[in-house]
Specification:
Blueprint: H1 8-36, E1 41-43, E2 51-56, E3 62-67, H2 70-85, E4 90-92, E5 106-108, H3 118-131
Antiparallel strand pairs: 1-2, 2-3, 4-5
Length: 143
């Protein structure tokens, strides 16, 4: 047998890649078959850091549960929520009271929402009204 032009290191990496692909395909097969049978499917990576339990809920949707280190579970669940909500709806509040830093609170936008709260929206509207010189015929509501 002639030596590989890439060397033994490349052969080992290639064999590892083939093994990884076969293992991934086996996991996909287990997942699809298990979900089709309405069973919970758990995957525990060889490192043991994280396990994922996947099931079909009562409404027929996929449900994932992460089992492992807390910060990893929080991170992955956050990604799930962003996927549900749509990351395009994430905004940071641009309100900046005079002499203070910008709010920058992160919120999920609803309809035409520009600010994180009603208070910041009202304060920004008031600041804009004052900056226009308090036009005649308008007044501030009290109470």
């Amino acid at each position: 047998m002639s030596p590989s032009p890439l060397g033994k290191s490349a052969e080992k990496k290639s064999a590892k890649a083939v093994t990884d692909v076969r293992e991934a395909l086996g996991n996909v097969r287990v997942l699809v078959c298990g979900l089709a049978d309405r069973k919970e499917v758990r995957f525990l990576p060889k490192s043991g850091d994280l396990a994922i339990a996947i099931r079909i809920d009562s409404e027929g949707r996929l449900s994932r549960e992460y089992l492992g280190p807390f910060k990893t579970r929080v991170f992955l669940r956050t990604l799930d929520l962003l996927e549900e909500v749509g990351s395009a709806r994430l905004r940071t509040c641009p309100y900046s009271p005079k002499g203070k830093p910008v709010c920058n609170l992160v919120f999920v936008k609803r309809r035409g929402q520009r600010f994180c709260s009603r208070e910041h929206s009202a304060a920004a509207a008031y600041d804009a009204w004052v900056s226009r010189g308090k036009p005649r015929g308008t007044r501030v509501r009290r109470g």
